[in-house]
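pasting input
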Amino acid sequence: MSDEPLVLGIETSCDETGIGIVRGHTLLADAIASSVDQHARFGGVVPEVASRAHLEAIVPTMQRALDEARVSLADIDAIAVTAGPGLAGALLVGVAAAKGYALAADKPIYGVNHLAAHVAVDTLEHGPLPEPAIAMLVSGGHSSLLLVDDLTAGVTPLGATIDDAAGEAFDKVARLLGMGFPGGPVIDRAAREGDPAAIAFPRGLTAPKDLAKHRFDFSFSGLKTAVARWVEARERDGEPVPVADVAASFQEAVCDVLTAKALDACREHGVETLIIGGGVAANSRLRLKAEERAAKLGVRVRVPRPQLCTDNGAMVAALGSHLVAAGVVPSRLDLPVDSAMGLTSVAVAG
Amino acid sequence: MLVLAVDTATPAVTAALAEVGDDGLRGVAERRTIDPRAHGELLAPQIRAVLQDAGRSPADLGAIVAGLGPGPFTGLRVGLATAAAMAQVLGIPAYGICSLDGLGRAAGPGRVLVATDARRREVYYAVYQDGVRITDPAVAKPAEMSDISVQRAVGEGALKYDFGVPIDDRVLYPSGEALIALAVDKIRAGAPADALTPLYLRRPDAVASTERKHVLQ
Ligand SMILES: [Zn+2]
């Protein structure tokens, strides 16, 4: 057995109760309970419903993780927990439980940043992170470009969406096309039968005047509106809507902008590694297009497998493991949650 | 047996220790901080502090008693999540007690209203006869409560609203020792642990978050 640290991670920032256990960079357990079904009829996550579900799920999910990893809480070297950003009431359940575990088992606790954890999780699959790297996090909650100089010290945000998140755009277009929720997988599937060049949908914040101010920012709201207008015009004219072509052309517009800006960031900062995380990283066209464009620049693309891209406890444990290895001082037992936590520090200072 | 009590159902964050023996219950240490906005920050350090006050460690605990509310949800869940996690690590049972009962027991003889602040101009309340609850915990606007015909009122909800009866302002927040006393039969019997399910009494406000959604697969 290795003497690398055994680290537990707890994630409750949205609607997934996740508990992961890692030893060094090796994933031992990744247990998840989701309240997503309870939110579907509201068209989005209801914070109070999510918080109630976290409280119910935390103890049994912990037990599943411990069983899967075949360890006990007494064996754990450190506990990491998402302290932000996220839904305040949901974060508080995970942090309160983490403090109970840390206090009773007499272990150090690290309150960590959820976005940095999305980056750290890739080390479980692809090994140590070459630094600096560019990370692109794309999900229903965020669309960010980050410069990662040192994952344990701080991450520099380069840009983010100024309106909808990329994943949100997929959801809204899927609803428009009557394809169900969540939108990512259904659009990905439909797009395979369509022509990505059939319809020229707009690429947000790519015109020269926008680039001056928003070089690494994204905007998907105009694209969503353009798709809606195009579909409505066809329907008004009594013509059939070529769903596959719409899906493929919309997806192409999103992936074009995301990959162009991500690789522009790599070029600008002389970076040779691009990490893509978040639920949208599972999109097949995004991965392919990123790899094509990266190859021309000599940039390597790293994308964790889909279960590790969406929210989970393993990513929090992975970041915790980095912090322990780097000798970062643990957080204190009175650590607060911060629903709008920035990236200047990846852990709550001890 | 050393027993820990926690309660976060009111603006008070409470942690207490008592020694439960065959013949009685002896309070060992109790700490309370009044701050409705900082339950998440205050509770765990306060549990550590009462253990230090008593010169004991978490491994010495034989059971945990947690106040189940009713109370404002966000703070209430802090106490229950912490208690459940500690019990899991230590392999000891956790028992849930209605937080209003902790006040009712301390309120003494006669017919007494226990009321705590439920925000939104409402109170969580129940009626007690000689320290024993005789109505189910409920939530209501003070003006819309059914006829409660009590002699006294206790709890910080009674300070905030006028119920037309004298207020005993020595009894404003649930006492940890009282919660342990209420669970003492279960503790002595080594009863199976309770599910620490909060007494919410209200349905969730089903409005989807406009903050982060973060669910796209
Ligand atoms: Zn996330």
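fyi The pocket of zinc ion is lined by residues A 114, 118, 139, 141, 278, 311; B 214 (CB under 6 Å).
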